[in-house]
Amino acid sequence: MQRRGFLTAGAASVAALSGIRATQATAAAPEESPTAAGDAPPLTRNRLEGPYYLDYDLNRIDITEGRRGVPLDLRIQVLAAGSGRPLPDVAVDVWQCDALGLYSGYERTTLEINARDKAPSGAAGQLPSGRHLPPDSRTTYLRGFQMTDGDGRVRFRTIVPGWYTGRAVHVHLKVHHQGVLLDGAYADGTTMHTGQLYFPEDLLADLRPVAPYSSNPYRRTPNSEDRFYTGTSMADGMVEATWDRREVARGVDGALTLVVDPAAEHVGHVGSRSSG
């Protein structure tokens, strides 16, 4: 598949997290070490792209655009399946909702869907099918891509996402390769992974009373009730998170190892082979 704009995705865990604080909590530490000699790292599961992906040319580390929320320093490393070698010069593209459950480019759409499904007559079947929807605004917050360095690593400065009806707290991502970075845009590449990242439940519980998350009017869906969530390993997309349990508002360090198949193509559309 060819893409005009930045192509992204894939990620991996970082060996060390910066800014670790006293009385810290670390959750969802991986049992496996994909980079250890002789290991065959487990392939990260592909997911649906969802309805809110926009192929914009936003090559940047800080994707917040001033959006309020608990700071998240998200570090991702992309490894090749089988060999476990780092993949340099691939584009990792992320997008997420804000603390109140809104996606940039889709404020009216997400408000309408959340309001409908929050009503007594709302049913789970009314949730977005995963098919792409046309944007209803030109906002671009909480979207962006980065190119991996020689060790297959990228870093994003963002916020911990909020939640909306029927989905666990998550971040979407894509990994693209074989393209060209020109004038801040990534063109003519192939999408080898489309996935979703999840967060540990104890972090989300600490987050609930903190502004602006405390103003989110929707019920938060636990990971265990999410239709796409499959488990707590990095292969399932679970972020290893570290934070100060006394003061989560100071920020969260997040790390993930993303293991992808460079020979595959997973665009994440409904009915495609990546739809699981």
From TrEMBL:
Keyword Signal: yes
Signal peptide residues on this chain, from the entry's feature table: 1-27
Chain intervals with Low complexity compositional bias: 25-37
GO molecular function per UniProt: iron ion binding; oxidoreductase activity, acting on single donors with incorporation of molecular oxygen, incorporation of two atoms of oxygen
Alphabetical UniProt keywords: Dioxygenase, Oxidoreductase, Signal
InterPro entries xref list: Intradiol_dOase_core
Chain spans, region Disordered: 25-44, 118-138
Matches recorded under PANTHER family: INTRADIOL RING-CLEAVAGE DIOXYGENASES DOMAIN-CONTAINING PROTEIN-RELATED, PTHR34315
Name this polypeptide is given: Dioxygenase
